[in-house]
Amino acid sequence: MDVVDTRVSGSEAQHLVRKCEQATKDKKKVLIGFRLGDLWTDVFTYEKGERASEQGVSVKARLLYISWIKVDGNMVYKAEPKSAESARRSQRARRHSCRAGSTGSRSCRASHSAPVRKT
User: Fold this and answer.
1) Do 44 and 89 belong to one domain?
2) Per-residue exposure over 63-92, b if at least 16 CB sit within 10 Å of its own CB, e if not
3) Residue 28 sits in which domain range?
4) Is the pTM higher than 0.90?
């Protein structure tokens, strides 16, 4: 897989991507550390070239989070590490949303193998 077509989600990620636009227009090397989510595939038919009329598959995802950005090797952005409390809240929210939509499947429960501490 050479390319993943991404849609930037979240206002913070959108803001950071916009800040990089000028650097890419200036042909600078921009590297981004990121997290993708909600991967899906899209089947299409080639219309031109030697593969015309053949089917292809495009991999798509949402860009959820940017952890760092480098421009020409210089770090220009680094996300603040989450506090322990913020990480716990985030973990609880993920667990809740999964169980809320779950039918009690074994795979859902297995995906939450980390111990839960009650405070």
Assistant:
1) no
2) bebbeebbbeeeeeeeeeeeeeeeeeeeee
3) 4-80
4) no
